[in-house]
């Protein structure tokens, strides 16, 4: 992105704009430019002169055409655009720079009045940022305490205070510590605006109920209350198109005010006038000194438009008023006179006035990306001069002009003002024209009265009560010191010293002085480096860090001022210290001896008697500036007096300190005792008495012995450039510098020679070893030659014997060679045999696979044949089934007639009896139809078929095994009359006598009895489906059972008797077999869950058997093994159909409320409804779930094991395989080794990760993690101060590829992200944090390529994909057994929570 700015030349005639700023951005790096609107502007307070804009006053003349600098532009302009880019403009230098990119559009902005190089922004995300325009760094980021975006920010002119305003509240901030001090909400409809007056003495607050309150800033007492009730009549006719607020029934009057303005009121520079513009298009003026209403000015040109902004111009009584329509006028509030109106092609959106009111910066309404600077003082000199219209260079438009509404007056006298330099803080204080001005005499008087200056602005009230309110600029100690020391503020010279970098003498500072605060250590390094660059004498003063440390710590927020304070102290209070360097200042120490001789000769005689010089008892105090013997508060109090008095007063303080310790010093007889007494921090000396004694000594010392006559008076540091400091023996310092350089060169040469000597020594050792080896070999060679010579000179027999021995050896070698060849051939043959065998095995496997395929195909063909035979026989027996149905209908008719006849006998009216008989027959038909249809579905599924009415396609071929074909063909079947089709045809092969049995539940017993039609059938081939009793009367009744109920948070579960209602449409009632105790249950029970409701039946890791189903349920039937799901799968909502997530929104609202979709509960206990939990509630013997919230699994899987797939194992396993998609060979870190963490370990091992690092505080879990596949283990409590992310980054060469947080701790979540590798690291959050907790990290962590994502239920779709995990368990691909560490009964369920909290169990399973 690029920003284009164009500046026009200064215009000295007319009222044309002086500067145009265009803000634009290139689109995708092309030449296409897209304008970017500005949102707000602000001007700094660094104005060199104060210009009074008045219709009768003499105004400064503009700079000449050839002038290179115009004093009215000696300020900085800041602007923010819609993208959040913050720009600063230095107009005299004709340059701009980008300060920051906040990323959020700003709503308001102002400059910090205390630290003038800082800007404070109110952003549209309700937060407030502060930036330094010199360093382009973020100084502070204040939290978003505002409920809406801040509309305006007001800063105190001298104190570190600021007020931010929004449409709902105003907040008072401490800009020194950047913390919130107070929130002003207001009564009724809220606050319009709250801001400081121009002098800072008062806080003016306007409320929406029509009242204005003026408070004292320091005492917070109410000065004056202004009521706007009398102006309410002006609002009877409201302008169209504007919303009103404040019409509260509880308010005293129905007062209407307008919202969303930049400002409602403004105060004049001397706090004389208050101007309010919150009432339609009129301006109301009050005199704050006389507390009276002065004017009510109506602006006809606004045509009942509201006023959006109102500001005073400089120190004048002229205000600039901007309407909502973009009209800008100038009014003299003292004379109630319209001075003029800005007119041109453009309207105005907002404006900012410079500190002296000479220049106005405006943002146009229709060209928001353009800023215009207008000379306001030119407009008042227009008078009778003819206004010239100037053609704009870029757009060909007429520049804005001021249309005078007042009659022409005589020309105003022009006064040419010389451009002065920017004033220092001291000059600005001294330049005020006031007889009550603060000076050094008043400060000394205050200091003697109170003992010290105020630490900060909180204590300034006492200071102001003593020195009057005009001294408010000096609100704390640092500013008073700046004033007393007359700091020059040579910022350019200071930056030159800073640019030289860290001095070589300071590079080892942190090793010598390991400070805890990195900020203070860095400030010390910079300060000492600047001093060393300033003068060579300060390169090697070992006591210099102790001298400057307290001052650096005091000015740590303004090191520029701190450095100049140190320089001023060195030049004045350290006079003549280094004239005899490197020896102590003998003449300075002699002064202290003279003072002791005059005021305590006994103590001096004692020192002389012990032969102890002032270099021992006085120089250590001087060279550290008393920092080693005084505490922080005492040192500050003493130096308050030192900076207020002449530099010679330091010697009175030192002499006074020695006299205060005279008792201890006179008692000491050894040098060590005196040194120890003087080295203690405040060895029993009262600072107040010390200062009083120093003043008394100063007054009693004659001029002949006074240090004042020896030392020069205080001289401030010169402005512009720092002075050259050479008050020391230059030849000694230069010699030391040369010696240091020589020593450094000698050290380098020594190290080089040492390295060379080591290499020579190493080479010599190697030569010695080679020589020893050569000598040993030579001796052996000589011995062998002698032995050979003796053998040659021996007898013939010895020679023959040797030849024979050689022949034997040769034969032996040949034999060994032949053996090696034979072994090699044998190995080759064996290898060939192994390869042949392996190839044969592969062929056998292929043949076996083809054979299995052939057998499977044969089974399918056989099955198809059998089904065809069954279908043919069923069709052949169609007539028989029709006859059976007719017989059944006749039997029902007979029963109905008997029922009606008996009803009539007992006195039932005939109509009622007939209707009861008809209803009984209809109910019987419907019941029998439902029963047989359900049985047919169940029987088909038990045999591996999808539906008997469909083609006989197998789901599991094992259902038609040869054993099944050989079973008895006599079966007991359930028959339903609904087996017949609607056209009267039937497919049931039943041919039997029908009978009805009705059993009922015994009270309180869950044992089921059946009410079904039975039939006995002797069938030939093929076999009929196996019978299963599906339709029970219990399906229509309430079941009583046991359940563990959580009556309230943080209380143990209570096992109670409950009633479970029958399932409704789309619901399933399940007999729970087993349920795991999960951390999520404990999380809700702890009360931290924001969706936790009580009383509730918890549990969501369960497994059970379908007991009954509701209307419309087709995916499961009674008897199916299922796992309840806390994330349903409806397969119809946008989440399920997106293919991007496993989340489902179909029942999210009611499930989170603990209810079924009809907003009722199926559980009751003692007559009270009990809430469901996560749609599962598995801590009950029976539970009711939605059909879409159960996953059907194979009956072969043990439910007491696979129940854990309902949450923990699936969540962790899927987080690795589906969410993170861990790649083979990657490095992984898992935080937390609970059930979920261990499942992540399994998933990473399955994915092929090579390094799996397990992180946990419990080492006992490492063995199980190693079994699951972990390769490394880290205990964060054993890292000795190193953070876990730092440790992981160091051992993994930049970070892990994947990390998983399985705890639910927001701090661990940040560590898990920051330990991943830059560029591609992925961190997955699995753990659930407490309600209201937030995660945080530096945005740079994500900008550099890391990914932060979450995982719920491992990304698995429960109904579709969970059965596959069960199959993985049955084939031993997934380990579940190791997770089950404890099995409990229902009444032991609370023990399961205790085991989980203590870390003794991974999963405790409750068996029902």
TrEMBL record:
WD repeats lie at residues 184-216. Residues 384-417 are annotated as: Disordered. It is found in: Cytoplasm, Cytoskeleton, Cilium basal body; Cytoplasm, Cytoskeleton, Microtubule organizing center, Centrosome, Centriolar satellite. The keyword NAD applies. NCBIfam families: adh_III_F_hyde. One of its GO terms (biological process) is formaldehyde catabolic process. Molecular adapter which is involved in cilium biogenesis. Part of a functional complex including OFD1 a centriolar protein involved in cilium assembly. Could regulate the cAMP-dependent phosphorylation of OFD1, and its subsequent ubiquitination by PJA2 which ultimately leads to its proteasomal degradation. It is an enzyme of class 1 (oxidoreductase). Keywords: Cilium biogenesis/degradation, Metal-binding, NAD, Oxidoreductase, WD repeat, Zinc. Residues 390-399 have a biased composition (Acidic residues). Belongs to the zinc-containing alcohol dehydrogenase family. Class-III subfamily. Residues 471-646 form the Rab-GAP TBC domain. It holds the Pfam family ADH_zinc_N. PROSITE patterns: ADH_ZINC (PS00059), TBC_RABGAP (PS50086), WD_REPEATS_2 (PS50082). Gene3D superfamilies: Medium-chain alcohol dehydrogenases, catalytic domain, NAD(P)-binding Rossmann-like Domain, Ypt/Rab-GAP domain of gyp1p, domain 3, YVTN repeat-like/Quinoprotein amine dehydrogenase. One of its GO terms (cellular component) is cytosol. Its cofactor is Zn(2+). GO terms for molecular function: alcohol dehydrogenase (NAD+) activity; S-(hydroxymethyl)glutathione dehydrogenase [NAD(P)+] activity; zinc ion binding. Its EC number is 1.1.1.1, 1.1.1.284. This is TBC1 domain family member 31. PANTHER family: ALCOHOL DEHYDROGENASE, ALCOHOL DEHYDROGENASE CLASS-3. CDD domains: alcohol_DH_class_III. It catalyses: S-(hydroxymethyl)glutathione + NAD(+) = S-formylglutathione + NADH + H(+); S-(hydroxymethyl)glutathione + NADP(+) = S-formylglutathione + NADPH + H(+); a secondary alcohol + NAD(+) = a ketone + NADH + H(+); a primary alcohol + NAD(+) = an aldehyde + NADH + H(+). The keyword 4Fe-4S does not apply.
